[in-house]
Amino acid sequence: MGETPPPARPGIGVGVVVTSPAHPNCVLLGKRKGSLGAGTYQLPGGHLEFGESLADCAARETLEEAALRLRNVRFASAVNAVCAAARYHYVTVLMKGEAELGAEPRNREPEKNEGWEWVKWDEFPPADQLFWALRCLREQGYNPFTEELDHLKGYTGSHQLA
Fold first, then answer.
1. What count of other Cβ atoms lies within 10 Å of the Cβ of residue 115?
2. What span, in angstroms and rounded, lies between the C-alpha atoms of 35 and 112?
3. Is the pLDDT of residue 155 over 80?
4. Using CA atoms, how far apart are residues 146 and 150, in angstroms rounded to an integer?
5. Which of 42, 45, 47 is nearest to 16 (CA)?
6. Which run of H or E residues covers position 85?
7. Tens digit of each residue's pLDDT (9 = 90 or more) over 25-34
8. Among 22, 27, 76, 119, which is disulfide-ready with 96 (CB 3.0 to 4.6 Å)?
């Protein structure tokens, strides 16, 4: 009696680091709305659908949320973010894609996102203003403007967040 049910299994998400030749050294960021992470900056992304490839999910979510078609979609990283207080546990695969030349984002989900903007990678908001998957990605040392995966060396697969 009165026992707390065990936590649900982790969710599987796909986040997308979107770059653009028209915005050098920038990535696309939005500001979350809603109860979980409201006011924090996020990448486009969402849930992986049954049978969907990671690249297809990245392209679909970016088109649905920001009206951008992607090219050259590829793996960037993976994070395992846990926040027990919020009962949040997601494994997020981060993909990288480039917006088509001349394309600019449109906010297609205004109920979930305040809007999209291009932000210089080296001028990001502080970590406590980033939604969890993006915060973990930054803490890994990922750099979207290199093709190295050095940020994964020694990564144990867990970020415990307060």
1. 12
2. 10
3. no
4. 10
5. 45
6. none
7. 999 999 999 8
8. 76
